[in-house]
Amino acid sequence: MLRIALAALAGTAIEFYDFFVYGTAAALVLGPLFFPSFSPLAGTLAAFGTFGVGFLARPIGSAVFGHIGDRYGRRPVLLGSLLLTGLATVAVGCVPTYASIGLAAPVLLLVLRFLQGLGLGGEWGGAVLLTAEHAPENKRGLWSSFPQTGPSVGFLLANGVILALSATLTDAQFTSWGWRVPFWGAGLLALAGLWLRRSVEETPQFRTLAETDRRAEAPLTEVVRDHWRLLLLTGGALTVGYAVFYAVTTWSLSYATERLGVARTVMLACIMAAVALKGLVTPLVAMIGDRHGRRPLCLIGCAACALWMFPLVALLRTGDPLLMTLGFTGSLLSMVTMFAVVGAYLPELYAPRIRCTGAAVGYNLGGVLGGALTPVVATALADGSGPPWGVAVYLTAVALLSLGCFALLPETGPAVVRDRPEAGAKADTGTGAAEAAAPV
Questions:
Q1: Which of 14, 24, 308, 335 has a 20 to 30 A CA-CA distance from 155?
Q2: Is the confidence at residue 44, as pLDDT, over 80?
Q3: pTM
Q4: Helices 355-367/219-246 angle, 10° precision
Q5: Is the pLDDT of residue 420 over 70?
Q6: 315 or 432: which carries more pLDDT confidence?
């Protein structure tokens, strides 16, 4: 089980490295290099617009790879998604700037970012189901938290490389070629990930589905037709996690360096410290979810996010490294209280025959609503001389939306479902909770 979980963690870490290195580059250098005729604000908005395209592609990728996962197995998803994202990321590092090829530069950037999103959209479903469907039921949350820890590892790796380059290169060198190095490094990471995953076995639940010929013929059609309400609720529920994470890691980086004059290396160090703590806490929170249920932690996490967004903006506005780190840490610990358990929670909401598609599409819908929009909306709302309280209002509203969605979803923890007399009746509402409670 440890070998399987580490293979899932390594893959998500590598894929999220690819995704995050683009977000950091968008906050720091892509605007002037690819949109030089724009004003500084418009250039940043345009760069974040290409960043958002990756999120728009993720539900499409989750539908494509989800179909493969539900029809042909979880293992092909793990290999195909990693390869696609890795190749697209390396290619981003090779795109000439606007000064060299004109309008073709941002167009190429847009296309490659879309391919990145397609690959990452498939990665999460395959990695999470690899652990969730192999894990014993009483530790499903713990083992499923390994791929949920991958984004933190990927972020630290991506920003660690950029921080090292920022500290050792001049601004001119970093703008000229230094920003490309992390993208080129993605190729080596992708090869390492493929090597780690080469011997991963198919999950027991999919083998059972294949042997009994109970696989879904058209998983996406079945999910949308029969479980659309569940799909929308899971997408809305996860929106706050994405919104808070990218407000901290992408928007605040751009805001503090451009508007507050904080050094790039200082901001990267502050954000990385908060993300490192988030990664360490993730499996601990997941263990609590195994004992006391997934849904209570999701509700607590959303409520904590709603309460912390105004303190986040106030602490960020100070420009003080310690206070900013406190603001970032409080935000990420709030959101990880919810995100630590969704690796087990979402798959348990869907029956095994449509699980790869349903869980992945729901997860990535939250990414569109929270991740794609937040840097753009927050940048626009912060266009003024005073504190960006509009950003706090926006993030608080998103947290309350997610709180409402989680309130409408059922609990899926095995102990809770086993004690619920009507658990078997959940099949017609779209939830796989009763099925998930059985040992895999």
A1: 308
A2: no
A3: 0.82
A4: 30
A5: no
A6: 315
- For residue 373, is pLDDT > 50? yes
Position with higher pLDDT, 19 vs 272: 272
Label residue 379 exposed, middle or buried (CB < 10 Å: 0-12, 13-18, 19+). buried
CATH number of the domain where residue 138 is located: 1.20.1250.20
CA distance between the termini of the chain = 13
The count of domains in the chain is 1
Rounded Cα gap, residues 157 and 89, in angstroms: 15
Return phi, psi of residue 177, to 5°. Answer: -145, -20
Query: Range of 152's domain?
Result: 2-436
Q: Which of 160, 166, 168 minimizes the C-alpha distance to 189? A: 160
Nearest to 176 by CA among 33, 35, 26: 33
Closest CA to 382 of 106, 56, 48, 109: 48
Q: How many C-alpha atoms does 242 have within 13 Å on its Cβ side? A: 25
Q: From CA 16, how far away is CA 347, in angstroms rounded?
A: 20
Residue type present at position 423: A
Closest CA to 327 of 340, 308, 300: 308
- Residue matched to tokens 């490389």: 161
